[in-house]
Amino acid sequence: MGSRGPPYASAKLADDEENALEDDINLSRASSLLLDPRLKGQISFLELWRFASPRECYILGIASVLSFVTGFINPSAVAIFGQIMIDFTLAFERPNDPREPNQLGSKALLFLLLGAVMLATTYASRALWELTAEAQAKKVGLAYLECILKKDLEWFDVNPGESIVARLGTDIPRMRQGIGENTGRIIRILSVVICCLIQAIVASWKVTGIIFALSPLILAIGLSITKLESWALKRTSKASIDALKVAEQAIAGIRTTHAFSLRDRFAKSYEDKLRILSRAEGWKSFTDGFGLGVFNGIVFLIFAFGFWFAGKLVNSGELQGGKAVTAVLCMMILATSVLDLPEALTALAAAQSSATILYREIHRRPGKKVQAVTSRHDARAINGAISIRNLYFSYPARPHVSVLNGLSVEIRAGDTFAFVGSSGSGKSTIVSLLQKFYNPIAGDIFVDGIDISRLDTATLRKNIGLVGQEPTLFALTIKQNILMGLPDGAEISQSEFLRICQMAQVDSFVSEFPQGYDTFIGPGTLSGGQKQRVAIARALIKNPRILLLDEATSALDSKSERLVQVALEAAYAGRTCIVVAHRLSTIRRATSICVMKNGQIIEQGSHDELISRNGAYTQLVNRQRLSSGDLDQSNRQPAPPHYKTPPARVSPVEPGQGQVLRLETPDVLVEQVKARLLQERTASQQGLGTKRRNEWLRVRAMTSGMKFRFFLGTLAAAGFGATFPAFSILLGFLIFAVMADGETTAWVIGIAAVGLFSFVTKWAQVSLFGNADAKVVLRLRSLVFRNLVKQEIGFFDSKSNTAGILSRKLANIEAVPRVVTETWSTFFQLFVCALMGLTQAANQSGPITRMVLLYAPVVIGASVWQTWSYSRFAEQSKVAIEQSTQVAAEAVREVKTLQTLQREDFSVKRFEAFLAEPYRLNRQNAVRDSLAHGLQSTSAMWTLAISLGYGQKLINDGSSRIEHVISAVICLLATMIAIASAAGAAKSYSKGLFAARTALALLDRQSEIDHDKPGYIPASFDPRFQFRNLWFQYPTANAPTFRGEFNLEGWAGQSLAIVGPSGSGKSTVIGLLQRWYDANGGEALVGGLAIRDYALSKGLRANIALVGQEPVLFDMSIADNIAWGSELPVTMDQIVEAAKQADVHDFVTALPDGYNTRAGDKGGHLSGGQKQRIAIARALIRQPKMLLLDEATSALDSTSEAAVQRAIDRAARGRTTITIAHRLSTVKNVDRIVVINDGRVVETGKHEELLQLNGTYTDMCSQQNL
Fold first, then answer.
1. Which homologous superfamily is 403-637 in?
2. End-to-end alpha-carbon separation of the chain, Å?
3. Could you point out which of 185, 259, 309, 876 has its C-alpha 20 to 30 Å from the C-alpha of 126?
């Protein structure tokens, strides 16, 4: 196949995409149920249950029937109550007939039976809906994560990882909420509507018709309010996500945040987003209050209008009083149910919206990859011959910046090809394109003569091993991380496993860990070099036909690099190897070396051939030479150790080879997960030991300045609470009026006035307290965030305190104000309601009131049990949910590595294993919550049963009259319904209480290194430093880094380099100087003063600048990233000057948006070298007295390295500069070089002095010479 034509040609790509869509698709386990075409538009109602199994569909059918039956109960109660009114009328007409009063007892038994049926059906239907919804949510979550992990990287370039994980945390719960009890509510409401409508028509079609005629107006009002509330919800959602992104950036890059004292800047940025969110929440509470007020007002007005019209019919003799009451009450229940419908429909609409987004991604084909394996292109067919022809490419995030411009190269099977050149020249892009992470704009890539666009992606990647520039390991043990490289289902002998680990220099440091290869890898467990060696072992254990090494040894010290390089060179045998390197010593023996510039090859040949040409490659070599004559010194190096080449395939295990190793299936990991969850629970409780003070009082204190708002809100809550007993009193008079003569005008006007009053009070109550909620959330989130970002670095090293987990805790603060506002508001509402309702009921019949009060503890107890149950559930599921979220976030963040290893399915199953615990707890809580809800739902029925049954006795005894019994029943019924409605507030309170405990625990935590502690602020900073007999161990490490033998001294204005093996403590010096950690013993001094005695930000860190080994940039413009290096305002000229010094100005100005170009999430829009140069510019603009360079040039090509090194040399004048380096060419001109090993200084002196010692440093130099 020839070239695809000119750059940016699209016709061929379109044809390929059409052909790809015609191929068979090997759908994944979770999405195999989705066989219809790609989704277009909003999904239908029934499509929400696409993932339901036949058994679950059967359960859903039962739940639907039970919900429908539940809907029949209230209308049935109205029919019985209407019959009571007819009996009441007959009792007045025939006062001497002893049969009429006795009818109350039989009706009481019916209400008792209805209550029992309602308890059973409500409990069963709600539990079934919730259990099936939980199962659907789990399936969709797994399918969504699985499809996301199989997408092309170009999709991730425009879809940040945070938003993907956020969908698991927002869209999945939103969908689950819609397809659970809310769907049951909709069915129940439809049942109520049907039953009430039939009964109302039978009782009086005229009353039914006149009330039904109002439905279009009511529906229009409801839809308008729903639309208004949806608009407010969208505003709050966007503002919430924006605030969450700021928090995640600050916490994810916490070392950079501390190093440049960015706490206040991030806090200001976060608070700015919170203010926008607070205003949006204020508007949302205003619209919510208006909607609820309108709905309550409409209910009363419909009721008043219905009774007025029914009274006219009774007065004219057209309608019997009992039937009039039945018709109006049925329409009243119908209207109330319909007005309750928008909330359930909104939840269902939100579920449809979220499901549409999720299903669309699940359905979407994975780009232009061909997933079907054909017999012609199976795994055995790949030998490794690669042909790249006229290749053009631009990244999707920067389509106007051409990275490759007509690149062509031929690589024979078994050859080793190296690509060198400046940063951004396209070297790493070739590695990505070979793995089909992206599709070229034009041109072709062939493997064994087959266009890789037609080659199965799984087959291709199964035959490729990759070690990237920034090694990625997973939250597993070291052994499991290495075994991740094995093909799925493959196994290896323990002896072979150990041999490969020795080749990669892993065994040398793992043997020092107490748990050896079973050591769990968490933050800070391994150094950069150790992580890279594990990644190399993982690549070698795969035994691929094609080996891709993208700066595979960049993080290794000289000794380890040389040993690993020998192992890699041995591994090259029989494989096609493509090496991207800045260290030219690592590619000297390559078959061919390609020098790249601007996306093209400008030189190609072997090392000797290119040296003889004295061209661009020779210039690169000369820049990395340590001294004259070093070019040929490598010939005098001692012979490195020899390793046998591992077999091309993992052979079947022979007898006697020892234990067989394989990567455990996630099912086996479940028990490990449970054990780890228990440990995490204990650790989290110890690490965040909240003082357990009264949460209510503490949150209440944050409402300071809102007294007038609380006063008005309290009056509104009390006023709204009074509407229920007022309504019940008026209703009693109204019923008697209808039964007597039909003259209802005065009482109808009273009920209409109550309706208007309820509209005003409910609107005011929700608006005022909602606005207070928003302000409390703003204050608490701001306080918690400020306390979080001043915690010591060791706090963030714990895997319980990752950026994702802490950001989620910040988001959950939204529920905290419910502890105060909802409690306060509900208390006064219920207090006034109960006081007025019970007083009026007692006036009519004290004995009945006292009897019903004996049942009240059941209703209240159900609410209390529901609150306790949820609180206990939240405590238990907290760590489990955090862990599952962390696993998903890790998988999305490291998707490139997962796709290379073909371990997407493993990660999904691992996520499923972590979901097992929260899934179990959620199901348990659903059953308990359903039982509590069932008990609360019986309050009306059993109140009627008790009051009517006891009323029958009082009537028979002659101690009460039937009209008094009916009046008391109506008052008590309204009061008990109001009390039962507080169950929602009780559950909301329990959620808020749990969120408050979590938030206050974070707020109470005292950093072990106090950022705000007063300390010494020198007028002129003295950068001398001294370490004496230092003892230090990282909080998450398995062994001490320094054991009391570390001594080091640096002078003002001195350039000091620290070199040594990986894990020897080089970067630890940087962390201690910035006081990221405190030493466990010994002395750490700066300027003759203990580091602990300085004011941390203004006294110490304000005078220090850092360029780290893995540069962290933020999702803002390049100009802002540089400017944030200075604590003082800077001009654009200063930014440009710093960029020029860091040799990044030319690159930035070549971008379409120049300095306004966004760096992307974690600098994802830039290459490693570009990110590091911007980080250097950020450090230089700070004008520090002490400059810390932790592998500051490790990601740079030779050309850029030389330019940046000159800039650093200029910047170092007059400053104390400490350089951590593996490339010794970058430090040979410093004032003093310190060699450390095993936690102590073993050599110190200038470059020439150390060479004369012919010791450790000399060996390191000889290993790096070309």
1. P-loop containing nucleotide triphosphate hydrolases (3.40.50.300)
2. 40
3. 876
